[in-house]
Amino acid sequence: MIQRIQTLYFLFALVLYVLMFFMPYALMPEVSSELYVYGVVQTVNGISATELSFWPLAVLCGLVSLVTGITIFLFRNRTVQMRVSINLMIVMAVSSVFMWFNAYQLGPEHIVYRLPSLFPALAIILTFMAWHGIRRDDRLVRSSDRLR
Question: How many domains does the structure of the chain reveal?
């Protein structure tokens, strides 16, 4: 059912991944640059320009957002929803590692991490909580089927 708590967990994970496109996950104060999932944006004399592009990370985060949104509507098939959510957690972990790798590649001593750098970890936790709720519902339905 779409009004279950796991729908809210998936929705919050979706919101976190969409917010990552609009909020920088790290700063480089020495060169006045911000790291977004789509690239490094440098501001010079009030003009912002994308200096370096992270398009694979942007595509990966976009796919995670899309699949998370689709997973919300797979409530009729709990086994598929559980499998998709497990795969989604793996892809979220890969995107998190990729984010940290991009920041580390630019020089770890010059990076100041911000709150959006924790969004993938929070989304993994929320997706796990949703998976747990789906599994609990599946067990409840199976136990009630045995009683018939």
Answer: 1
Which residue matches tokens 């994308």? 50
What six digits make up the tokens of 49? Answer: 């320009």
- DSSP-derived 3-state class of residue 88: helix
From CA 23, how far away is CA 115, in angstroms rounded? 9
Give the pTM.
0.88
For 123, residues 6+ apart whose C-beta sits below 8 A from its C-beta are: 12, 13, 16, 17, 64, 68, 92
Establish if 90 belongs to a structural domain: yes
User: In which domain, by residue range, is 68 found?
Assistant: 5-23+55-142
58-88 per-position pLDDT tens digit: 999 999 999 999 999 988 888 999 999 999 9
In a domain, 118, yes or no: yes
CA 94, chain centre distance (Å): 10
Residue 147 pLDDT class (50, 70, 90 cuts): low
Question: What average pLDDT does range 50-57 have in this prediction?
Answer: 82
